[in-house]
């Protein structure tokens, strides 16, 4: 166990997360939107999904990946803004340039967040807290935007810390604080613990990291499968994952395990559309387009199938993802079998500006 602990404790990891990134840019560039409840993406007609909501809208419960119709129910005065991804990408590049003043060990997670390893920073500052403060100050001075920072000795804790004092906050969790911090953490805040797993944990009277810590590694594996090993280690402060500046993304997607088994086709379509919106949003944040879409279906008896379809040109738009996933579902021949999980992923990526498709070329569905 000691060999697992000591190497990572020497690292200085910062997680930078921009505050309501798309919405903050729109409010910055349009003074009339400042202080207003706005949603980037979606529409006042109730079509589409919200990509990002301003903090004013979040007070009403509006969240990213929420259907526009639901967002309007929660916040009737919501203002919808058409996204300007070219602007968001340009801002993201500027933020990346700020990071590079301090380190080349940068692992972007999306346009608006990244891990930085500043164990040995370029300027010889030595203090991760000082570096995080300088980065946040530079983002404010040069871009008139705010960012929150989490600082610790591991990626897992730094990421959680960055969310603790949003917006415009900074949180440091040192080595001596980690185990206590993890013990107090609600189970739904653990990386990899989704809604269904969190509900299962709570049914087992497991509400915090301290509760999880009472289980042996064997019990963790028994109840939660392979992720149980990760939970066992992380609640003890063990996370040796390095910042990976050149991580290659081979696939990207989303999936959900339902609270109850689904057999009605219209309900399956609704769930599939929701998952498709999540995938489209994640692809847009990473500026990725893929040629191959894969549908994953797990049945109530835990048997699983996958179906995929490839196109000649890369794509990332919601309509193509949604329609292709629906057609793959139709062709899967589910019959009256009940479904407990649906997933959509894209792979076979290509840089969006480097394909041979001519202007106006359309994707050809089945």
From TrEMBL:
BP GO annotations: DNA repair; DNA-templated DNA replication; error-prone translesion synthesis; SOS response
Main EC class the enzyme belongs to: transferase
Ligand binding (Mg(2+)): 17, 112
Note on cofactor: Binds 2 magnesium ions per subunit.
GO cellular component: cytosol
MF (Gene Ontology): damaged DNA binding; DNA-directed DNA polymerase activity; magnesium ion binding
Subcellular location: Cytoplasm
Cofactors demanded by this protein: Mg(2+)
Active site: 113
UniProt keywords, alphabetically: Cytoplasm, DNA damage, DNA repair, DNA replication, DNA-binding, DNA-directed DNA polymerase, Magnesium, Metal-binding, Mutator protein, Nucleotidyltransferase, Transferase
Cleavable signal peptide: none
Subunit structure, interactors included: Monomer.
HAMAP family noted in UniProt: DNApol_IV (MF_01113)
Function noted in UniProt: Poorly processive, error-prone DNA polymerase involved in untargeted mutagenesis. Copies undamaged DNA at stalled replication forks, which arise in vivo from mismatched or misaligned primer ends. These misaligned primers can be extended by PolIV. Exhibits no 3'-5' exonuclease (proofreading) activity. May be involved in translesional synthesis, in conjunction with the beta clamp from PolIII.
Family membership: Belongs to the DNA polymerase type-Y family.
Name of the protein this chain belongs to: DNA polymerase IV
Taxonomic lineage of the native organism: Bacteria, Pseudomonadati, Bacteroidota, Chitinophagia, Chitinophagales
